[in-house]
Amino acid sequence: MTLPKRRKASHAPRLSGASLSSVVSMMAFEPFRRVLSGQIRKDLQIEGALKLDTSFRSPMPLDYRPVRAKPPRRLGGVLDLPSKPKPIPSSRTWTDRYASGQATPVEVVESALSSARAMADESPAMGCFTYLDDEGSMRDAKASAERWAAGNPLGPLDGVLQSEIDAADPKVGKACREALSEIERDGAELVDLSLELAAFASGIGFAVIGLETYAELAEQRRIGWRDLGTDTRLMMRFFETFAPGDYIEAECLRATLRQQCADLLRRVDVLALPTTASVAPKVTEREFRSGFSDVSALEAACRFTFMGNLTGLPCGQAPVGSGEDGLPVGLQIVGDAFDEGCVLAVLAHLERAGAAQARQPRVSANPLKFRQAS
Predict the structure, then answer these.
(1) According to the 3-state scheme, what is the secondary structure of 151-171?
(2) CA dist 46 → 93, 262, 278 (Å)
(3) What DSSP designation does 150 have?
(4) DSSP 322-373
């Protein structure tokens, strides 16, 4: 089944101050609530997610423990940060050798498996791999060799969700690619991957997490409605429009997303994608005081991070560059269930390679200033 493309059309306007308060009040009435809620559902990709074919839905699990893709790694007693690796042929080098016919993926995989077993038999043993899948490795190597022979390789770009990097703001995508190139030069193998439901992770997340938040705030909505921020009240009015079945549908899509992530992590050690689709949006002092609603910015902030929230997989992010006004760009690393060590190792290497650095943005805000003035 082919997934439909994410909808790109008009967006709900950015609101603040009196206009936001008026809209919250009008959300209590039909048909205004129906029209605006319908637009927000489209902007947050909820509508697209819930309209996906039934083939993308899996039975709701009895619990939401993360789905493990591979057997647990065997770790030593002390977890020291590894030293910077010695120069070894990078994936780019092998790409050039495959293109010129000097080597094939089958030869490389056969040699790697043979060397790994030889080193494991030495004393002391050196386990190069925590998990070996000879049959799967050779099958993939032969398929790759056939693509190279036909002049149609998948491309040089460790589990890079290229479609998600392409979906981010150009400056965000550029910074993420440059950071990944740094660790590729040090020997990491980058594999271009595609995750079918990634484009709808935000819609699934807003339907699941949003409705759970709405239910959690039931008492607050009853006795302290006016104590909620105006922007929060707008979203509460929005979630009032959902049917009970919407939550069930989203949970079934979530189950499939969890399994799709596990399937990818059987092929690679970690997944790499942006932390957010854009840098932080600009907020005026007036908007900070009164609250504001920007549905497009909300979707951009949550699209990629919701994948970790929904799957329970370990995630970490590194500041790998700057966007507009020097605001930080994050590269998100997602690992297999309970394999936090691998995520931390990748993040540590990004720091050692200089690809991840904390930079002072050219703009700043002091939340305490606005709180004292309000």
Answers:
(1) CCCCCCCCCEEHHHHHHCCHH
(2) 43, 23, 20
(3) T
(4) E-GGG-EEEEEEEESTT-HHHHHHHHHHHHHTTS------S----HHHHHHH
Give the Cα separation of 258 and 255 in Å (integer): 5
Helix H or strand E encompassing 95:
helix 91-100
**pLDDT over threshold 80, residue 178:** yes
CA quadruple 26, 27, 31, 37: dihedral sign: positive
How far apart are the C-alpha atoms of 359 and 326, rounded to whole Å? 8
Longest dimension (CA), the chain: 76
Residue with token string 């039909």 = 30
166/177 Cα distance (integer angstroms): 10
What pLDDT does 258 receive? 93
Closest by CA position to 154, among listed 105, 193, 121: 193
Task: Tell me what the mean pLDDT of segment 94-112 comes to.
Answer: 80
